Here is the input.
Amino acid sequence: MRATWLVFRRELGQYFTSPLAYLIAAGFLLLTGVTFNNDLAFSIGYRPVEPALIPNQLATVMILFAPLLTMRLLAEEQREGTLELLLTSPITDTAIVLGKFLSAWTYYSILLALTLIYQIILVQIAFPDLGHTAGAYIGIWLYGGAALAVGILFSALTENQILSAFLATTTLLLLYFGDGLGQIVASAELAQIIFNLTLRGHFIPSFAIGLVRGEDIVYFAGIITLCLFIAIQIVNSRRWR
Amino acid sequence: MNAPQPEQRSIRITRGQIGQTGLLIGGTSMIGLVLALLWQGVSTLTITLLATTITGLATWALALPREFRSLLTGRQARQSTLAILSTLILLAIVVATYVIVLRANIIADMTVDERFTLSEQSQSILRAAALSNREIEIRAFYTPQNIDQREIDDQYFQLYEAGSDGRVRIRYVDPQAEPGLAAPYTDALAQGIYVFMGYVNDDGNLTSVLPVAMSGRQEEDISQALAILLASGQFTVYFERSLETLDPLNTQQQGMSTIRRLMEQNGIIVQPLELAVLATSNEQIPRNAAALVIARPRRQLETAEIAILANYLQRGGALFIAGDAFLSDDLFMGNDSAFNEFMWENYGLRLTEAIIVDPASSGETQLDILSAQVFTNNAIGANLNLPEQPDTGVVFHIARAIEVDDTPPVQNGRVIMSSPSAWGERNWTRLFQQNDYSFEEDIDVAGPLTSLAWAFDEDTGAKIVLVGDGEFLTNGRVQSPQGNSIVFMDSIGWMTGFTEEVRFEPRGFTTTPLLFVGGQQLDVIAFITLILMPGTMLVISTGIWLRRMRT
Amino acid sequence: MIEVKNLVKRYGGFIAVNHISFDAHPGEIVGLLGPNGAGKTTTMRILTGYMPPTSGEVKVAGFDVLNDSMAARQRVGYLPERVPLYPDMSVEAYVLYWARLRRTPNARQRTQQVLEQFNLLDRRKKLVRSLSKGLRQRLGLAQAIVHDPPVLILDEPTIGIDPKQVVEVREVIRNLKTQRTILFSSHILSEVEQLCDRVVILDKGRVVGAGTREILSQQLQAEVKFYVAVNADVEHVHQLLLELPGVINVSSEGPGFVITAADETIRQHIMSAITINQLDLLELRPIDTRLEDIFMQRVES
Here is the structure.
């Protein structure tokens, strides 16, 4: 725990002193801002603003941003040689991976909190469904965690940051749009199974429409746990190569 | 650092790799096997998975016997085998947890309007459904292409299944995979309706099928359909056929099949009736007649026939009479006809021999009477002339004016009137033969004139709706505008009590459309969200980068 | 204290370290010598707890690196061949981070101490990326000792830095040895000669020679070398020297000859031959058996 905290603190500090991280934050805000302002213009006097608007957008945005946020976490350590020092320090491999993951997830949570500005604005000018929005934010927070965990896994796999980001993005695309595969499939039952394996399948029929389902939480938590576990195994395997 | 010895450089697949692949396959199959067993019980899938599990694990045990033994004795196996094993175990735990939680069906409705909690009214409808001894099925069609929509809709359907203790079941059909099941619904499917509700027969087919339009208000749509379904068959409306009336079986322009179909879609049974036959055989109108529709009769009523109607009304019956203007000696409900007098004496309503001409009408001609003034405070007119919806107006083509007794023997009232500048043309010969009409001071009647009126006898329960036009019920005109069918169905609904029975009160939503936001406010919002906040990030980013460059 | 007994390390089918054993004691600097691929880095990585041994017993400061890995790692300071850096951390933050990770008590204080010791105090706020190579080396050493480990393991610590800084680094290493056990690897023989109390020579995963220089040279097949320069006909002298008893080799070097013989008595034989032949002796001196010779001999055989 102590080591996890130390790694976490260092990595979080790196986020706050990294120009790239602030660029990503700016991109985040810009993308969501455009969507928000657009929807605002179209909704006036006509319909309520869609409560899950921003989380829905972030679901696709994170497919690119999660790998960008995590690509350096382990790949850089490997390349700079500091991983060797970490692995010869009296700390567990779990502490290393966990600390880094928590730092990425925390940074993401901060970005999410920044997007709450839109809700604050909405409350001044309408009666938004805050419950629905809260549910959607919980969902996208977990979803983001899962995407970041996938990113860390690929960061552990290679010392090339670009390759890591590429692999992670591809995997996330597959996990998100995998139900496209289901559309080609002949059987509706099989398509449903595929849908329920995808990230979309655990966001669209629940968090996005205002429901929080137990199995979705398990799904995202499961992905996080599995990816981190495999990442730890990969880091550990460096000792055997 | 470690140059490989020459003999290691072969591309030979090692035993270790074979063994570990076997472990991977066997372990994953084992997880799939457990899942399949839980889901389907024994089936071809589970047997296949059993085979792959055994093959995979056997391969591993044979290729890496030392590790297989160490698994049993607990000693340490090779690192990567251990890693694969423990990952698989973790996967199994995750999957098992998922299945358990899935079965537990833990759902929280976060919406402020509780859209995923059924309202009191829905729940009482469901209780009524649970009491009925007939299975109800919601049959919904989804292809593999719209599985995501199916998963979303399922969240609503589930509520009904649970709330009715399983009396209402949901069944998903893939129209591509089972075209036979989809065949009866082809037209509706083509129009974008993909959800249907009905009672389940012994042979598994649906009867009394109602379409359910899944609009943005799912609870309303489904509950309304359910209410109609439960009420279906309870109401029978008769259509008079012996007076040369419009024919509900006729699908031509002059037929009335559209009206008939509309009623049947709402679960109302439509039956023919012949007053002439009843008169000769000295019978009465059947007891189950919730209403009788006399649509555009072309002759007068005989005494015996009037007696039958009087008897029916005395029993609390309901009459929908659509008279019309013909150049004929045997005009139905003419000025001095017996039936006209009967209606005037008992209910304060009668048809006049004046055709409404409305110069203010924006119809094709001045004879096309738009519903200029509508009394919307009653069940018949409540859904007419809705603001911003021109299609909810009513258009009559050559309509007779109705006279309403303002000191009637029973309750009565007007529903649709013309504009004040209209008049009632009495010279029918000139109108029909020369298509010419003009207001003549002493002869014609000054407006505004009534084209649709109602009467209600509190004591007997008898209800009457009298309309001066019959053509608006024909296939050609009944849905242009939509208001024509609306006023007919609402009249039937009021007369039979159908509306009372099935009306689903939509509940209010607290989330309102966006209030009006001024342009200036929009600009401020745009500035904060698009320039200020992202800009700050960009500035910080540049600042850090510059500082790095300098040190 | 380092104890290695019968260490074997196998990667798949390839044996990187093949039954090596050696010791190192507190107050000693032990040099690990060998060509590339000899197994030096592998051995060091096993000692630091980076990877586990395939078989054998390895103990650091009394703790087994396999069974008590955490305790062992706690007591080791490690500087890998490539100095590991976090380019975007300040010097101070960098050292402090490692101090804390290794449970150093009074981490901040200790960091200040170490920075002072290595003359990095005035640069402590600078980013690591801005340091020169020599400073980075020092920084690497700083993180290796910040937690005051009893054992120091340095992998080629003077590679790639300029000569002036090399001297500094060697000085630092020398000063560190009080009460510590230091193991460092190198393939610069002169450096090993200068710094080490003892040497372990590795080749192809095996120990081919171990001990102090003196012991090693005694282990050599009792060879002595002398340099002789005589003012006479070169051919004549060459022939003369070749005929001396106990001669192994005579090779010309510059104006004279290097004569390799079985033992010290060759000196008397040379003197006698010169006197008998009335030759004009210009120079006669012994040549110290250098580590280089030992190394080349061990490694080639």
